[in-house]
Write a structure and sequence with these properties.
This protein is of the alpha+beta class and 130 residues long. It has a single domain, classed as 2-Layer Sandwich (Ribosomal Protein S5, domain 2). Helices cover 32% and strands 22% of the residues. The chain contains 3 helices and 4 strands; from the N terminus they run αβββαβα. Strands 1-2-4-3 form a 4-stranded mixed β-sheet, with helices on both faces. The longest helix has 18 residues.
């Protein structure tokens, strides 16, 4: 079997930068500060000199069924993935929480909302998308 080549178009947020453990989510709940946007909010915790750990959350009550939750997380993840190279890679842990409007917002509007949240959280310098 031939392995596919890794190309720049298949860039991903590294698994090592994903929040997975219960302890990490508990830390976000206890220490995090919420910054509310129009279509989502970001909960940010300072993590001095630790690599970034990121999470995308969509609850059944807030967003809907499994298909809707997966779509909301996918939309947020893609917007953040495109900005990943410009984001601060140490010192902050963000957790994005989707609202129901994440599903229906036009991509450009959702992208502006997410980018604004990243700027307000101090994780992204203001400027055009790369």
């Amino acid at each position: 079997m031939i392995e596919p080549e890794k190309s720049p178009s298949r860039e991903r947020i590294p698994d090592t930068n994903r929040m997975r453990s219960v302890a990490e989510f508990a830390r976000m709940r206890s220490e995090g500060r919420a910054i509310r946007g129009t279509h989502c909010l970001v909960v940010v915790t300072r993590a001095d000199d630790e690599p970034i750990r990121i999470a995308f959350v969509a609850s059944r009550r807030g967003v809907g069924g499994a298909v809707q939750r997966n779509r909301a997380r996918r939309r947020l993840r893609e917007i953040v993935r495109r900005r990943w190279p410009r984001m601060a890679q140490r010192g902050t842990w963000p957790m994005f929480v989707a609202f129901r409007s994440t599903l229906t917002a036009p991509h450009a509007e959702l992208a502006l909302d997410v980018e604004g949240l990243l700027v307000r959280a101090g994780m992204l310098a203001a400027g055009p998308e790369s």
